[in-house]
Queue: 3 jobs
Job 1
Amino acid sequence: MRTFIVEDSPVILENLVSALEELTPARVVGTAADEVNAVNWLIDESNSCDLVILDIFLKNGSGLGVLKALTQARVPGKWVVLTNYATPDMREKCCALGAHQVFDKSNELDEMLNYCKRVASGSSDTLPAYFS
């Protein structure tokens, strides 16, 4: 499962890549630390991925801007938000912008990894959160 990660913390990015590649069938094919580079990579038709994992707060731009761009460009795949700011309002906003799931970095990492396994297996229980 080709995965692209949008995360501005080098430590979190390194740990996330390790966890994904060791515990799920994910292979990280690209990363970005800001909105512009993420959007440019994701809308470039020469690139492709099955899963996008993104944070909300970035050094430049935001994950919300990335979600808007993904929706406008109709980029295929699953889009997952992994954030420390997974409030009910933020979850709703992310899902309204097209996120399939929203996970809290501090206490839902196992759930996110399990979701990634289900996506890789083609499981039908990976519908967007607002349909769950």
Job 2
Amino acid sequence: MLRNLLKRLLKNQRIKSFLRDIYVESQSEVKLSSDLQPSISEIPEIGALAARESQFKSFRLNLLVPALSTKHVFGGIATALKFFEELSKDYENLRIILTDEAAFTPEDNINYKEWSILTLEAHDQSGKCVIPAADRYGKTLSVGKNDIFIATAWWTSILAKSLQSKQAVIYDLGNVRRFIYLIQDFEPGFYPWSSRYALAESTYKNTSGLVAVFNTSTLKNYFEQAGFNFKKSYCFEPVLHEGLKPYLDRVVAAKRYKRVLVYGRPSTARNAYEIIVMALKMWVNEKNCLGWEFISVGEMHKPIELGNGNVLKSLGKLSIEGYAEILLSSYAGISLMISPHPSYPPLEMAAFGLKVITNKYESKDLSYFSDNIIALDYAAPELLCDALISLTNQFSESVQTSSGAIPETFLLDNPFKALPENLISELYAEAIM
């Protein structure tokens, strides 16, 4: 009886979708559909996305992005969507191809409730469309003669290059068109030396047919110093989240408490969560931390006993309002990033008046951004502990804090407006050459 009940439940598409989402979230931020992995000897992220001829003749922009569901839209995906919105504001025919999500509904992200949701097998149509493509094994994507692609991660770059090669063959275009590659970090560093490392790195070496757009000049400089060459490359600078800006007026008068705010993401290796915890344990065992509070934000994790009765408590991912309030009431912040990308949390903390400890990496040095930032020469528990002791020794409830002198670009409404005025049209010109 129980077995029959389970069979009936599993036939319900909503229940199947719900169970799949639970499994996906338990594995990582975004995982691929099992349909995309026909063999363990393959790399599922770049599972072939075959192209077929389309009768759709109009100019169309296509964004290749891992996911669109709200639970995945933060960090790099959020920036990619904003970038696409800026590029596409003057165009009617738009398509978002979800390389790592097998299903999507309007309830998954209400910002796209007006968009048509199509399957890979569906006929092309005009307007704004979303196509979940994680279950693409054995299926094809309709590609028109005037489709232009925008890649947002290393595996989407490989897929974009493949699609445009197939497009050139189908329509006898001669030269393969350019596509736009939004680069937001040195992605080989997300993996050990491996096939994925090599594939990610290959997208920066096999650069024919692409226009690179870097998330920050800091990252662009790293690539240039590392010897990666792009025929055309541009960059934009980080800006403060629009939801945080209304709270900036309260920074100077904010009452600070004995609180150390940690950007803690145990599942993201480059944020060096373990080093932060080791440094905190050293500190509480070397110094009397009576009255100090330790809060972790960014990802929910279990409480961590630091010693002498001190605990690192996790608040997980906060609302913008909740994040702003804790920024306004905290004294010190710790946010590490073992990569050439600056990352946004240390910049946000500094803008809100926290005394922030982060790390340098190659040419990256965030101390330029604000007097509130201490950039360690390298990330090590001892170095972080010493800096934390120095900062907390300066705490005084009577001393007012300030955001310091932060770059004007950080307060822009749109990061892409900081680019040259003709850059967007120039990118389009490069894309269709």
Job 3
Amino acid sequence: MLNPLRTRFSLGLLLLGALVVAEPGSVSAQTGLFNGPVDVLPVQERTALREGRPIVTGEQGSYTARILINATPARVWAVLTDYPSYTRFLPNVASSRVLQSNGNQRIVEQVDRRRVALITVTSRTRLAITETPQSGLRFELVEGDNIQKMQGGWTLQPVAAYPGGPTNQVLMTYQIQAEPKSGTPRSLFYNLFRAQVEASLTAIRAEVGRRA
């Protein structure tokens, strides 16, 4: 005759084992979940991203910015690399064109136009870009009117709600280091540059949503 207590204990162990293997809330699943690209970030950044807010950290021309986009990497990539269309959705971009294209290498020229106090300031940059399709790109300044040095990159990381689940979001990370030419007021340059970084993230997310 079976011992009822032993039977209940055995069934409990079996159920616990099933949860550990299969349930998203199990210890095993949580380990994978907490190693995701969003979950490894500081708590304040995770909260802001999941609330739909962009995050920008850094100072003095060296910034890391992130935003969470409800889309596939392919959709975000299509917007990020649509250089001629930057004038339609990126703030202050008056002109954007691909001057050279060779495999995954591009030379892109952009003209930025903005109002500073009562003056309209126009600046031109040429960037050498290396693309890694649907994963990210790296860029470096070839020449610029007001910028001495600039380099950085964009990274796209698919995000799932739980391990093994569908990747229905993308964590887009933008890293950049920029230094103005001598004669350019540094504090003004850095303030405008940081604002531009955050505005670009928001604009790209909005364009991805518009094209959906």
